[in-house]
Design brief:
The chain is of the alpha/beta class. It has helices at residues 16-24, 76-88, 109-122, 134-142, 155-175, 183-198, 204-209, 247-250, 286-294, 313-323, 393-406, and strands spanning 4-8, 29-32, 41-45, 48-52, 65-68, 73-74, 98-101, 105-106, 201-202, 218-221, 261-267, 270-272, 307-309, 311-312, 327-331, 341-350, 353-355, 369-376, 410-414, 422-424.
Length: 431
């Protein structure tokens, strides 16, 4: 079977958790390759709801190996809290079930404080971060002053890493009129977590490239969405990592040659958390209120309300090209039940020019106007429908129109939050 990368093709929150959990049943190894605990996904299994931020979705299955790759920035205290919570819910997590790249960079207390300080100072110009310290941790990684997981069991090296990092951060704290951090303060805090976190530490790139795993199927799980990519997203309202499919290789140590298929996850409409451009947003609109209420549109990690709008095919086509998407999975089709009219954005008008993509710097433009195709809605209920043929005719036409405008076939359609309510049109693991 193919190795598969699962990415969000909008601004995140597309329902990747459920899809990765569903697809993970067919994989042997599930790898989280970027992001941090600023991302979140919700998985509903029977009467239980699991909210994950760092752990790969495969962690809920006893027969799967879950891996946190080197492309992630890891908050060890947040991870422990998440593991403790899952174990209280009956999910056993051992070092044979979870592996963490020894070269993963850690999120430390000063990263989170700096994140909050910057956002508060920015005021109306804030980016809308989660305040989890993700950005500052990635800055330290690129600035070559990170503390990595492998450093925790080497006190001399750990102190040297902290000296370098705090030389930088204490200057910033002084500038914000905040108390400086001491090395011993961070060392003491890390000692509390070292024995717990170190048992999961391993050379992930070697594990994934070991002969014993050569014929095993790998599912690579991305966080956030493609439009939050630090290079190709709606900059500067983006995350601090590359969220596109090619990052799966770098963020795990697996050759790009072993990535066979990319599936892009999209909602049947569009949402966004935080600040930044959103051409199809429905502001003070009854349909937007419907999408938010019926779709339970609140962030898994922060609880922030998501902004809602019509499906933007122009943006999804753009991200499908960037990711090399082979097929898409459409989620939350059922949220559109009962709407009389639906719209799909197929391009934009801005400054008397037409575009079939979102121009760079469009966040500075206030007069960007979406170009819409209009469709009839449906009154029938799609919740739990298990085959494409049983969907309302207008729903099928809507799906086919999405395929047409984004230029990719639909492999999967999700019709409720439940893990089993899936219409599989094509198995993404099959060539």
């Amino acid at each position: 079977m193919n190795n598969l990368v699962v990415v969000g093709c909008q601004w995140g929150d597309e329902g990747k958790g459920k899809l990765v959990d569903y697809l993970g049943e067919k994989a042997d190894i599930i790898v989280r390759f970027q992001g941090g605990n600023n991302a979140g996904h919700t998985i509903v299994i029977g009467e239980k709801t699991f909210k994950l931020s760092l752990l790969p979705s495969g962690i809920l299955r006893d027969d799967k190996l879950s891996i946190i790759g080197n492309g992630v920035v890891l908050d060890p205290w947040a991870l422990k809290k998440e593991i403790d919570l899952l174990e209280k819910m009956g999910i056993t997590i051992s070092k044979n079930k979870l592996m963490i790249a020894e070269n993963v960079s850690l999120i430390l207390p000063f990263h989170k404080e700096l994140d909050h300080l910057r956002e508060n100072l920015a005021g109306a110009k804030k980016i809308g971060t989660t305040g989890r310290g993700i950005g500052p941790a990635y800055e330290d990684k690129v600035g070559r002053r990170s503390v990595r997981l492998s450093d925790l069991n080497n006190p001399i090296l750990l102190r040297a890493r902290l000296e370098r990092s705090l030389t930088h951060h204490n200057v910033l704290m002084k500038g914000y009129n905040k108390p400086e951090y001491s090395i011993s303060q961070i060392e003491d805090k890390l000692k509390e977590i070292t024995s717990f976190i170190s048992k999961f530490s391993i050379s992930v790139w070697q594990e994934l490239n070991d002969k014993k795993n050569k014929n095993k199927t790998i599912l690579f799980e991305g966080a956030q969405g493609s439009l939050l990519d630090v290079d190709f997203g709606t900059y500067p309202y983006v995350t601090s990592s590359n969220t596109l499919a090619p990052a799966a290789s770098i963020g795990s140590g697996v050759s790009a040659k072993r990535v066979d298929t990319v599936i892009g996850i999209v909602k049947a409409y569009t949402t966004r958390v935080g600040e930044g451009p959103f051409p199809t947003e429905l502001v003070n609109d009854k349909v937007g209120e419907h999408l938010a209420a019926v779709g339970h549109e609140k962030g898994t990690v922060t609880g922030r309300e998501r902004r809602c709008g019509w499906f933007d095919a122009a943006l999804v086509k753009q991200t499908c090209i960037l990711n090399g998407v082979d097929g898409i999975a459409i989620t939350k089709l059922d949220v559109l039940d009962g709407l009389k009219e639906l719209k799909i954005c197929i391009g934009y008008k801005m400054n008397n020019k037409s575009y079939n993509f979102l121009p760079t710097g469009a966040d500075l433009e206030k007069d960007i106007e979406p170009i819409y195709e209009i469709f009839e809605g449906w009154h029938e209920c799609t919740v739990g429908v298990s085959s494409l043929e049983k969907l309302p005719k207008n729903a099928i036409y809507y799906i086919k129109s999405i395929e047409k405008y984004v230029g990719r076939p639909a492999y999967i359609v999700s019709t409720s939050p439940n893990r089993n309510d899936i219409i599989e049109i094509k198995n993404p693991f099959e060539r």
